[in-house]
Amino acid sequence: MGRLDNKIAIITGGSRGQGASHVTKFVEEGAKVVFSDILVEEGEALAKTLGENAKFIKHDVTNADDWQRVVEETEATFGPVNILVNNAGVVLTKSIADLSEEEYRKVVDINQVSVFLGMKTALPSMKKTDKASIINVSSINGLRGAAGNSAYTSSKFAVRGITKDAALEFAEHGIRVNSVHPGIIQTPMIEVEGAKDLVAQMAESVPLKRNGVSEEVSNMILFLASDESSYSTGSEFIIDGGITASN
């Protein structure tokens, strides 16, 4: 018996990094998963390794029509949606003085507007199920400020806020909505060329003296997607090795 047997999930940003870990974990636990991304080659390769219970769809999360297509294809392939994981996101490190309006809006569209579109579009499908769960991936930057990350931080605070509103609005339909706030997680997003020393320094700033790994975030998201978290909604779940403990 898997913890997500008979569950049908949509996971965005699922081709690599934390998203790929979430997709893999969900399939291992018995879910049927449609995952989306703009990284087609990596997405198709992952779907092939996971078999018939995983389907990849190319998807621009900032586009309402794309969202409608993803939900419709999920229903046609597997059935009504039980779980939505809004995982897609980007980071842009720039000071407010140097950040252009276009750059700011791009980050907000991907990190924030996509969450609104995903929840709004998936809602009619999720109403058809007995139990449903939405997990919105924010960040510890959705709980505190960080110099040079104004676009990212403001978008992640917004994800935290809309999660609480949606939890209140969707409760009457038995749909739970929670946000997850990862800290420094070892993924391709931070494993760029020449960044080894910086990543090591980041690990030293963590009370547990290490960076997290994707599977640790996946385990939290799995818990929130499963019926084990049946009385949790409108809450923040932090995975940061203790970084925000002193805030």
From TrEMBL:
GO MF term list: oxidoreductase activity
Record-linked Pfam families: adh_short_C2
Keywords, comma-separated and alphabetical: Oxidoreductase
Entry's Gene Ontology BP terms: bile acid metabolic process
Superkingdom of source: Bacteria
NCBIfam families xref list: PRK07231.1 (NF005559)
Family: Belongs to the short-chain dehydrogenases/reductases (SDR) family.
Official protein name in the record: 3alpha(Or 20beta)-hydroxysteroid dehydrogenase
Taxonomy of the source species: Bacteria, Bacillati, Bacillota, Bacilli, Bacillales
